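lol so apparently i was supposed to do this last week
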Amino acid sequence: MSTISLNITGSIATITLNRPDKLNAFTREMHADLREALSAVEADKNLRCLVLTGAGRGFCAGQDLADLDFSPAGKEELSNTIEKNYNPLILRLQALPMPIVCAVNGIAAGAGANLALACDIVIAAESAAFLQAFSKIGLLPDSGGTWFLPQRVGVARAVALGMLAEKISASQAAQWGMIWQAVPDAELANTTQKLAEKLAAMPTRALVAVRLAMRAQATQTLEQQLNLENQLQGQLGQSKDYLEGVNAFLQKRAPVFTGK
Ligand code: LHQ
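anyway here it is w/ LHQ bound
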């Protein structure tokens, strides 16, 4: 993998988008490398948290516009690449059986911005920014942007972000609820590491259930959502971590969760 690096330390995997000269814009090769890295993460049953970040001064500038075929035949490729690369990536992240922290180290533009929003907890360096760059090249937000954005910032802001393609700072994104937190640049690595360690020591199955239920609310009635909560709670009630959590509380000691 030349465009992605994967580091596994203990129960935490870190995937770094690694084309810093091009602000980690997505080429076909990078998509293939990312698929390989995600396969390794999915196969490692000891993992309990994934961190996604970028190398250099950018997080991800979205599709590499030099790696597209804009010939008339290429029109089809635009849709093909979304179907083959971006959509499966977003769905794969949402199905990953562990929490995902996105550490946005710099500009997150186009599909790069929406890749970040597909992660569970997004922390950004204060110098980072988010840019729905799509309308500048005659496109609409993809990679789930039209789904994640209105949920996180409301339709009024989502529409304006999609239409105007104006950069918003990490601090503004945090104020709007688009991301969890903006931190001083020098603190991004440390804050991310602490958060990943915290999540990796928590009841993994419960965290994944939180993602699932929060996502489902977008399309469900209250009654359906109550049923889903009940169904998921029933499953979690069978988990070792639930037993451990309750026992630890009653025994007045710190719980030791195993993710089982
Ligand atoms: C890039 C890119 C880039 C290539 C920076 N491509 N080289 C899905 C499917 C199918 C089709 C299309 O799209 C999609 C989804 C999408 O993601 S569409 C949106 C694609 N992304 C963009 O339109 C963003 C384009 N980039 C920019 O607007 C700027 O580069 C930003 C605002 C991200 C950063 O600006 P600066 O900080 O001023 O950096 P820069 O522009 O100087 O970029 C640094 C280098 O990275 C430069 O290369 P060079 O060789 O000249 O140093 C850029 O050409 C290259 N780069 N983004 N998307």
